[in-house]
Please model this.
Amino acid sequence: MKKSVPTIRDVAAAAGVSTATVSKFVNGAQRFSPPVEETIKRVIAELGYRSNPLAQSMITGRTKTVGLSVLDIANPHFTSIVKGANRVAQAHGYTVLLVDTEENPDRERQLLEALSRRVDGMIVFSRLQEAELRWLVEMDRPLVFFGRLPTLELPTVASDDHRGAYMLARHLVSQGHRKFAYLGFSRSRRDEERVGGVKECLAAHGLELAVYDTASPSSQEGERICSSIMLGAEHPDALICYNDLMALGFMKAAQTLGFRLPADLSVAGFDNIQFGNYASPALTTVDLQSERMGATAMEKLLAIIDGKATDRYTRIEPQLILRTSTANRN
Model:
């Protein structure tokens, strides 16, 4: 004969309390005296009672699920962000529902609106311009945004990209580099901060910056554009890339063309993805602390869901990681 599944009524009867008391205890809606809580805990363990997630969501109005949208899960930077966010969510009893917008702004709104109907709150990456994001505020859903938003009143978590870029450029200048190029991705709002940091540093030293744009922040784009930069009349002696993927693709193509790295060209990127440490030469980069960014954003979102006060803007300080893809020219 099949064993019956214990119900909340069974727990209440065995503990000598009302079903309402058990429900409030299980869902964290109310605290009770230590003896009552200990009795309920003991009975739940003895009976093997498991609360019904659907019923629980009907009582509390929460799904215990949070949404996280990323731009490209194939990019290790976003993978690390997901890892950090998921670790915090699990520690608080939440499940993460992931959406990959695949670097396609045309799909973002549709995917995020669908996601918002299934979760208690969301963490969002977006390529859309700030003027196109007002609907996020109007969704009236707990939300944390990655990146700076000067005008929209949304809680945000961001790395200090301008400072990281300035630090990287200053290091390359100190190594004696004088001909600089930046390989960027102008569709990203973070690109403006990075190229701005590089330009500010170079201007202080009377140096110019050649800026190149790409169609996607990928290793394929870095590889594709390499020949047009390196086979021109005069190639740079230092190249800063929007991210590590682009830098690694560029390095591969440059070596195929016969250039020696870093003897002929120093290359650096952003994100400090794991693969950069195993490249040859190993990639100098700006560590944006991706996993910490994900964890911080999730902590902020869960605080908002619980009605707790939190800072509107949280900045993550970058760290410069020096490896062998950059070398002295002095």
DSSP finds twelve helices and twelve strands in the chain. The chain has a mean pLDDT of 90. Residues 171 and 198 are 11 Å apart (CA to CA). The longest strand covers residues 65-70.
